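Ticket #4471: complex job returned nothing on first submit. Input attached below:
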Amino acid sequence: MLDLYDIIIDAFNIMLGVEEYYFTIVITSLYVSVTATIVASLIFIPLSALIVVNNFFLKKFLQIIINSLLALPPVVIGLFLYIIFSRMGIFGDLDLLYTSSIMIIAQVILIIPIIMTLAINSIHGIYIKYREYLLSIHSSQVSIIITILWESRKDIIVGVLVAFGRVLSEVGAIIIVGGNIENLTRTMTTGIVLETSKGELSIALSLGITLLLISFTLNILIYLLRTNE
Amino acid sequence: MNEINRKNFIFAEKIQLTISSKRILDTITLKIPNGLTVITGENGAGKSTLLKILGKILQPSKGNIIYNNQKLKEYSSFMFQEPIFLNRTINDNLQHALRCFNGNFKTSYQSMIVSYLKQFNISHLLNMYPDTLSVGEKKIISYIRSIIVSPKIIFLDEPCAHLDMNNQKTISNHINKLSNSIPIVIVAHKNELNLYNITQSIKIDGGNLI
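Support reply: We reran it on our side without changes. The output follows.
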């Protein structure tokens, strides 16, 4: 049995040697998480701005719902998607279960409330600040949205980075819908779960350290963006 | 409706504004003719609020604002008491205002902006950020932004406040000259009234005309 020192040395050897198994897992993780973050951001950040600048029936109720969804357990999202995308489900014919596409869908659903809550909070402050000015120059709704999105871009980017960190470290939903299949749907988090259970602590630790390094880099970026204001 | 005609550009009819059950403006009826209309009154009297309602920045709780020409409504401009700027250079702020106002986002208004800044002797501020400017400089830029869009009517909230004597003269002379061609409504304090060629003076106190 390896001692702790050997496990750590092995873990760094795996990382520095960029073993194929390790490399595939990291790339799959990044592909799924980056795609999910981009898709969710492109759709739900403009939607957040649209919610902020418009007054409509049940607006406050919608915001309460979005806030409440922050507490939605990822395994419940995974279970729900598993049911509707399995053979018996309404989207069973799409044959998406155990693919990276369904993992992306799960992660998009997971970060919608994070992206929208953070975006709405930052856009709302900017909109209050500039609302009268934008009215005074007869801005169209599109130009109001573009202006407030641009003016709140730093806070929005911070929100996107937070959401990316959240999906990168997620395990509950993607292990259910992705199935943790080698070279296909195995990510850093699901890989850690599997390798730890198999006793392959070196590879699990190498994935864990990589995850921590990415998380650390994200936090540095968030810090730099916030202190740069 | 009969009150609105070629001589009166805006007719405000029984304007009321109530915020959180507090009456800010109380049944105000007035006409804005061509030339320079000045709204005066003590601090907190409701001058700026009335100006914002006339300029369609605020909606009254009751009453109507009738413009004699749809273009007046669509091409009005407003200068706020506390200048509001985007976190961009002065050039970009003015470009943004012009592009939004004209609904044309491809045009560059660089030469127009440079010429206006030159006219007010502040060309050196072109690429500076608003945060780095003095209150007076912000006021002048804010005034330029309200006139550079070639509006059909202008609403100015204390345009000469916080300015030194020279700049007060420059801005007020410009306002006086401009009021010969388009209607201008300004909020001003008593001690600034001698700066302007006033066509109509409105005094407001406690949300009422007096």
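The two ends of chain B are 23 Å apart (CA to CA). Closing as resolved unless it happens again.
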